[in-house]
Amino acid sequence: MLLLRSILFNTAFYVNIITRMVVFTPIYFLLPRKKAFFIPKGWASSSNWLMEKIVGAKFEIEGTENIPEGGCIFAPKHQSAWDTFALLPYQRDPVYILKRELMWIPLFGWYVAKQRMIPVNRGARGKVMVEVMKRTKEEMDAGRQLIIYPEGTRRAPGDTPDYRYGIARIYRDIQVPVVPIVAHWGLFWGRRKLVKYPGRFKVKILPPIQPGMEPDAFFTHLIATLEQASDELLIQTAIDNPHLPLPPTAVKRLAELQAQTVS
To answer: What single Pfam family name could you report for this chain, choosing any that match (predicted)?
Structure first.
């Protein structure tokens, strides 16, 4: 039954993308950028709905009051394709720094370009990165919300963290609040996994880290904040979903946390 539901979801997910692109593309490219954003938001909402109705996976958000007005940086833990779009309906005017290869995908790349997303060559240095930072500051000065994954790539739930220092440089240069976000999307929609799992889980938006800290101190504080909240939420998610099959990384981390509690 899980496999059948997953196949049905995957089919509906891609049919939804294709259908919306066919129907809404003319409207999207005729509208001004901000008004056109209702189309990606609608797609994200419908995809969340498909996950709930077909797979049985649903999330609730805590801490929306922690989102500051104006420009800020969202710093979520990254586990799944799901977390790249699931929160779009709840964000005012987000902007992503993304690998430039995504801009080359027909139609998708055009959608992304219209929203003034910021492409970057991950191996770039020097003048290229200076230009990226300039573009980022311009978008933030316009009151947009930057989404950047501090670990750079997807990590399995409970896996050993691997944070990249780039977010500390952006924090230093842009001077806006950083909002940490934790959730265990990967327990329900795993990386490169066909099967999706039902369940209920929380997304926690944590209090913002205000600008002004030294980059090293900020980086240490951000990691500690995200990892503590992630560990607490992993325990709660496992308790709330006792029949959920956990990946080895999550099983190992839960055992470590239990051992720390005992000792």
So the answer is: Acyltransferase
